[in-house]
């Protein structure tokens, strides 16, 4: 009987660990080191660094996990970034979940789309470019850019245009290769510099 009780307790303990979720309050305390680049509430003031406020928890955990993987494999696997690799290297799985819970709970600050990008941006974002085989962004990221958390598609609404453009170019060159099934690489390879400029500025104003 004692052995049975022990097994049950161990099983319950393992189950609790397996389904442990992020703690936003713990994440707030751990996020102090992130603030210099991403802002204390995840609303980065530096346009080359992404806004994290309101981002899907699952997506944040995925990126941190892959930054850590890149740090362990010399950039051969995961998502390679000289700064983020070092930041993610010491994080535990629970640290990542806590940070994700905190940043996802923060209110994102809306950006703006310069007037000259509105019409062309809307056409490309919502309709893509069938002759060139460019898939419409709305298919995965939604009409307001909020993405789909369960599917792993990030919220890109209100993101800094400079950051979005840099990531589209990284996907296009293959420098960034942690997208599901190469979806973003396939799309970005068909985008011109002008397309990227238009899309990144249009996305900045989505909310």
UniProtKB/TrEMBL annotation:
<keyword id="KW-0574">Periplasm</keyword>
<feature type="domain" description="Cytochrome c">
    <location>
        <begin position="116"/>
        <end position="207"/>
    </location>
</feature>
<keyword id="KW-0349">Heme</keyword>
<feature type="signal peptide">
    <location>
        <begin position="1"/>
        <end position="20"/>
    </location>
</feature>
<dbReference type="InterPro" id="IPR050597">
    <property type="entry name" value="Cytochrome_c_Oxidase_Subunit"/>
</dbReference>
<keyword id="KW-0813">Transport</keyword>
<keyword id="KW-0249">Electron transport</keyword>
<protein>
    <submittedName>
        <fullName>Cytochrome c4</fullName>
    </submittedName>
</protein>
<dbReference type="InterPro" id="IPR024167">
    <property type="entry name" value="Cytochrome_c4-like"/>
</dbReference>
<dbReference type="InterPro" id="IPR036909">
    <property type="entry name" value="Cyt_c-like_dom_sf"/>
</dbReference>
<keyword id="KW-0408">Iron</keyword>
<keyword id="KW-0479">Metal-binding</keyword>
<keyword id="KW-0732">Signal</keyword>
<dbReference type="InterPro" id="IPR009056">
    <property type="entry name" value="Cyt_c-like_dom"/>
</dbReference>
<dbReference type="InterPro" id="IPR008168">
    <property type="entry name" value="Cyt_C_IC"/>
</dbReference>
<dbReference type="Pfam" id="PF00034">
    <property type="entry name" value="Cytochrom_C"/>
</dbReference>
<feature type="domain" description="Cytochrome c">
    <location>
        <begin position="22"/>
        <end position="107"/>
    </location>
</feature>
């Amino acid at each position: 009987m004692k052995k049975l009780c022990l097994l049950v307790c161990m099983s319950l303990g393992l189950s609790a660990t397996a389904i442990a979720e992020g703690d936003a309050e713990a994440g707030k305390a751990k996020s102090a080191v992130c603030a210099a680049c991403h802002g204390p509430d995840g609303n980065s003031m530096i346009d080359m660094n992404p806004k994290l406020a309101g981002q899907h928890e699952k997506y944040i955990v995925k990126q941190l996990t892959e930054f850590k993987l890149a740090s362990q494999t010399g950039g051969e696997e995961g998502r390679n970034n000289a700064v983020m690799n070092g930041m993610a290297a010491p994080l535990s799985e629970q640290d990542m979940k806590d940070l994700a819970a905190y940043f996802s709970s923060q209110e994102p600050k809306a950006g703006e789309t310069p007037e000259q990008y509105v019409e062309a941006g809307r056409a490309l974002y919502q309709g893509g470019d069938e002759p060139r085989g460019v898939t419409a962004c709305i298919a995965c990221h939604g009409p307001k850019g909020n993405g789909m958390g369960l599917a792993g598609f990030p919220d890109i609404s209100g993101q800094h245009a400079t950051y979005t453009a840099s990531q589209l170019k990284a996907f296009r060159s293959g420098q960034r290769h942690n997208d599901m099934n190469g979806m973003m690489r396939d799309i970005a390879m068909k985008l011109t510099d002008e397309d990227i400029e238009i899309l990144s500025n249009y996305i900045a104003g989505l909310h």
